[in-house]
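Input structure tokens:
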């Protein structure tokens, strides 16, 4: 069992009794933050623990941060142990929103040095389509033995983004919807537009019509077009608040394009500082 990016519903269903498997329900609604927990309490995958984007997968925002700043790595490692995660656990994350919130947990586990983590391909939608078992029981967790090996180099700050967006050998990929990237609409943040020089690679383009990730070859072709000659290890993914950007990093890893980094603050942090440049319209 070598899950590193995705696990199929069929494969996970056959391994729910494996004591090494830890499953996390990451369902969330940006407009109604309690909705994910409510849906979890109604039904969830057997043995799944709920991981809340706002309170578990992010620290409280500050006046200068983005909407979902990363938590302190030691604090998050403590939370993982409280959830029963061991150093040899096989972690699976799922949601019901095309994997965007599950990918955040996937990236954060890797940020703490844990490679055995995957997103449930197709999420709750696929699980239910196959008629696989669900539960209302909230599991009682025991203390795990997880030890973090923090990898701070996987995340970058705004200064690095500014330098990279202006460097022809590097690439900043913005995972937001095209109309938000172009600055035509901005439903959440104060300022519309994008980082000058960033390329738009909407995370939704990683997905097939059934909500599963596209095959690696298709992902690779699309990502190479967006990279436009830049090496994957010279790429930075960003979005609105460092969540859907993780989905692009998941797609890159699944396509064999490794080494890209995350700008956790993303547009919600960038746009808070009026001194930072803003562009609008399509990329040149």
């Amino acid at each position: 069992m070598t899950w590193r990016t995705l696990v199929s519903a069929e494969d996970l269903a056959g391994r729910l009794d494996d004591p090494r498997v830890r499953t996390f329900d990451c369902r969330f609604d940006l407009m109604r933050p309690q909705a994910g927990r409510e849906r979890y309490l109604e039904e969830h995958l057997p043995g799944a623990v709920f991981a809340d984007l706002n309170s578990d997968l992010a620290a409280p925002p500050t006046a200068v941060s983005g909407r979902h700043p990363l938590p302190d790595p030691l604090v998050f490692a403590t939370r993982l142990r409280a959830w029963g995660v061991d150093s040899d656990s096989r972690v699976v994350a799922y949601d019901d929103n095309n994997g965007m919130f599950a990918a955040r947990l996937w990236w954060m586990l890797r940020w703490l040095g844990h490679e055995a983590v995957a997103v449930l391909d197709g999420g709750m939608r696929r699980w239910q389509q196959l008629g696989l078992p669900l539960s209302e029981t909230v599991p009682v967790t025991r203390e795990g033995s997880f030890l973090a090996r923090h990898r701070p180099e996987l995340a970058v700050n705004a200064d690095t983004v500014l330098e990279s967006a202006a460097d022809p050998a590097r690439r900043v990929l913005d995972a937001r919807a095209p109309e938000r990237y172009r600055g035509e609409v901005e439903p959440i943040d104060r300022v519309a537009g994008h980082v000058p020089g960033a390329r738009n690679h909407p995370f939704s383009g990683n997905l097939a019509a059934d909500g599963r990730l596209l095959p690696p070859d298709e992902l690779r072709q699309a990502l190479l077009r967006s990279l436009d000659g830049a090496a994957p290890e010279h790429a930075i993914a960003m979005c609105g608040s460092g969540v859907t950007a993780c989905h692009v990093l998941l797609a890159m890893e699944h396509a064999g394009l490794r080494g890209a980094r995350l700008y956790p603050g993303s547009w919600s942090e960038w746009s808070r500082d009026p001194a930072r440049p803003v562009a609008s319209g399509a990329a040149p």
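The longest strand covers residues 21-25. The longest helix spans residues 100-111.
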